[in-house]
Design brief:
Elements: E1 8-14, E2 19-22, E3 32-40, E4 44-46, E5 51-56, E6 60-65, E7 69-75, E8 87-89, E9 96-97, E10 102-106, H1 108-113, E11 120-125, E12 131-134, E13 139-140, E14 145-152
């Protein structure tokens, strides 16, 4: 099929946590091609989209979703001197998740006490979005639609 005739599919991402919206461009994040960040007010991090867990690391989880897209959820930019139990993942590779399923419990207080960022970044990786729009800024509520992407597939 010619790329000229590829359809654009609309995908929505929900806020993974209650907190304050942060423009991804201000975070220095380079892995995510279209997404957002949230300064969390609490430690329960939820899935922004339905899909299957394909990778889990100490501070990230990757979700494979529709249209061949993968989404990354990253918690902070934690250094090695913090306890490995600061992020307690509730999912494992192979798990199917729906939007709003709890991915992790995070000790926000411990991260802040160590002078580290607990910023939660979230978005598309490995592919460019044809269009990207943030629907809410400021104080956001977990589960509310936060971003809309158009994906060519």
């Amino acid at each position: 099929m010619m790329k000229l005739f590829q359809r654009k599919h609309t995908v929505t991402l929900a806020a993974p946590v209650n907190g304050m919206y942060v423009d991804l461009r201000k975070t220095g994040e380079t892995t995510i091609t279209a997404g957002f960040a949230v300064e969390p007010m609490e430690g329960e991090i939820h899935a922004p989209i339905a899909g299957q867990i394909t990778a889990v690391t100490a501070q990230t989880v990757t979700i494979a979703a529709d249209f061949g897209c993968e989404y990354l959820v990253q918690i902070g930019d934690l250094t090695a001197n913090l306890d490995d139990q600061i992020v307690n993942w509730q999912v494992a590779v192979g798990d199917a998740v729906s939007a709003d399923v709890m991915l992790a419990n995070v000790s926000i207080e411990t991260i802040h006490a160590a002078n580290q960022s607990a910023l939660v970044t979230c978005g598309l990786i490995g592919k460019q979005a044809a269009d990207f729009e943030i629907s809410q800024t400021g104080l956001i509520s977990q589960g509310n639609q936060l971003a809309t992407l158009k994906i060519k597939a």
